[in-house]
Amino acid sequence: MATRSSADPDRMQELLAGQGYLADRGLAIAVAVAVAIERPLLLEGDAGVGKTELASALAAVRSTELIRLQCYEGLDATHALYDWNYARQMLHVRMAEASDAGELSVAEVFGPDFLLARPLLRALQYSGEERPVLLIDELDRADDEFEAYLLELLADFQVTIPEIGTVRAKRRPIVVITSNRTRELHDALKRRCLYHWLEHPSPAREAEILAVRVPGLAPELATEATEFVAALRDLELMKVPGVAETIDWVRGLRALGRERLDREAAADTLGLLLKNREDVEMVRERDLERLVAERGDD
Amino acid sequence: MTELERACEELAGFAASLRRAGVEVSYPQIEMAAEALISGGSGDREFSRQALRSALTCSPEEGEIFDRVWAGARPGSACPRPPDEIGPRSRSGSRAAGTEGAAATGSAGPDDAASGGEKAGAAHSPRERLRHLDFGLYGPEEERLARTVLRTLAGRLPERVSRRRRISDRQVRLDLGRTLRRSIRTGGDPVDPVWSRPDRRPRTVVFLVDVSGSMQPYAAPMLVLAHAFSQLSREVEVFTFGTRLTHMSRNALTRSSRSAWSEAIGHEVPDWAGGTRIGAALSAYSRGWGRCGMSRGAVIVIFSDGWERGSAGEIETAMGGIHRLARRVFWLNPLAGRPGYEPLAGGMAAALPHVDDFLPAASIADLETFTLELARVRRPAPGSPAARERPRPRSPR
Lengths: 298, 397
Known about the structure:
heterodimer; A: alpha/beta; two-stranded antiparallel ribbon; 14 helices; about 50% helix; B: alpha/beta; three-stranded antiparallel beta sheet; 16 helices; about 15% strand; globular
């Protein structure tokens, strides 16, 4: 397999930052290489660390379309690849009968007019100049059967639709697969991809992200907030807050006019950060004092 | 040798080092790694490291092994043996500690177990004797026979309703797509409707097996059983813990279960000087896998004697978290069947309120009882958090 282009991770990091996505060097290298050697990129990590957002940012950087396939249990070829618009076909047949328009050919009834192209087929049929970004989101939510199907597709990037023929991708899409690791993906699939595990960002990095996403944020509040969240992530929570939650929380704090993080502010706004009643209660009772005290406030 | 050939050899050598350290690198991955390196041109060392890491590993655990191998040697040159490989093999010390542990919880020693383990008046066929024989009394012949029997014990997995639908005769819901497709034969009239009903698939079962010194030789048969279950379906996950938690991949599990009885299990160093840090291991499981979704609606099977070196509070918190997410929590304890045993030791007592089914696991008969209970898991245990959250059943149509 010939290498199409060379990987420039520094440039990739810059371009992603330009889109508001701050990637660390390891991720930038993985992305740049995946794009250069035309292999799928598998991103695993907790919910909310920015896997989906990377695909969006990447599509924006490449000025191309983002084609998104959201996976769920029971997802099959009908929902992922294509389906026939049966109702329309029925109507077409009836109308032809009613108007005595003569013999209908199978090719007419099973033609492109009646084909509903779902994300995977759209990615294959994409006719733009740039390679599209195909995001297969939360693949761990789909089941084994779908993974096997996907494996085949990723190998050849072509599908055969019995009524139409073989559809081949003009240019290989840039494939980004994300997984929350609720279950282990098939070995065969994982080993066909370039892999990167995304951690929650460090407090310093998260503060940088906040600076981009929440303009006008006071640096002291950013530091206090991110250190608070980092400490929170170490607790036995049922649902660990991700970057999106941090951003919402900080926006909430500002909306309430808080410029510093004190115990009261934290207690009032915990619901923006923790999306689970038991987590909120646990933090309120046990740890709030300690966490805020450690941040050096009253 | 050209530059390219030398580079290829280095890469192949590095991949071999990774394999020796436990990362199952496949050949296509090495190809991918080569392409990745070429794409970077004369990238710096950091680029090479990250690019190889992305291509050759596919989990954070493998990533850690990669980091160690990379740090330990320049790629290609003779790689020093990573510290985590097969530890010292010792069985005798662990047996002694097992006795100590039993005594500490106030139960009878293994001698009493021997007489209690064989049911008085039971059928005298060798098979029956084997079924009730305590694992601690096994010799090589018993191990060989038991291995076969245990494999057959893995029968059915608990099931749950899945989101897929399958064709059925019962008229539950119309499968519109298939009905219309079939109707094309009859000129567009849906004469012959196709029905579907929700499909069923195996419920996730997670085994958390304590393989520390105090648990041998009980852990070995448990691993053989867990391996047998894992062959049934991909929804079965197996973890071992002793000094730390390890997720067993399919291949590792096969290797482990083959050698389980006669060697130390995997690379865990039998920690027979003291107990295990059960609470820490369970927390690590929850944090790394359970909370992310593996525990949700799953059946969790913990196999341990509950002899905890850490604090009881740690076990309590960890078990509480697990119990909230899981459908059913089993705790298998090899000491539980012994006459006079009561779960009074701090660790076991702390965990018990969060356990739905507390079962003994000292003989084949015990494990057989467990597999029957496992297959029967459908409704959440009464009073458990899963039961409280259950929606009210729909009224029959």
